[in-house]
């Protein structure tokens, strides 16, 4: 698949290894830059959860831009190898927790708002983004969830959700506070 790079922050322009395989679809650099720019005010000192982490590029980009700690959740052995290599190359092990698990099983044990920010880039065409948003509505495991998905994928309607488009890719942002407000008013 080739290499990708961190866009900004203390590791800006550093190269990362992408996992091999056809199922791997790293977020484009342009979309990742816009995504993390959108979260810039929330990142300093944040605890970040990167679901479907792949190479770890999203979580490591968040760390590069000031997050305090990132937890990377990935199940693929190939991806885990690349992810571990990337963490080692950046000498970031003290700021990273790597979890080898199915995302939905991992989330079963996560308390509400256990993380400040959750980033998710699930494989397309499997309904995983929709499933993740539904899980988040039932248990908002972070103060803010941002999930990449195909533009046409139907996600549960969530009050206050914000959708950003990048070609045929979309990123939806949902805040736990909006869910609380809706349940109090509904």
Topology:
Blueprint lengths: L2 E3 L9 E3 L11 H10 L8 E5 L5 H8 L4 E6 L2 H13 L6 E5 L2 H6 L6 E6 L7 H11 L3 E9 L11 E5 L2 E7 H10 L1
Parallel strand pairs: 3-4, 3-6, 4-5, 6-7
Antiparallel strand pairs: 1-2, 7-9, 8-9
- How much helix, percentage-wise, in residues? 25-40%
Low-confidence stretches: none
CATH superfamily label:
Vaccinia Virus protein VP39
End-to-end C-alpha gap? 47 Å
The chain-level structural class is alpha/beta
What's the structural domain tally? Answer: 1
Specify the overall morphology. globular
Oligomer: single chain
Order of helices and strands: EEHEHEHEHEHEEEH
Widest beta sheet: strand line-up: 5-4-3-6-7-9-8
Number of strands: 9
Mean pLDDT: 90
**At the third CATH level, what is the topology name?**
Rossmann fold
* CATH architecture identity: 3-Layer(aba) Sandwich
Number of contiguous helices: 6
- The CATH class, by name, is Alpha Beta
The radius of gyration over CA amounts to 15 Å
What's the gist of this structure?
With 186 residues, the protein is an alpha/beta fold. 31% of the residues lie in helices and 26% in strands.
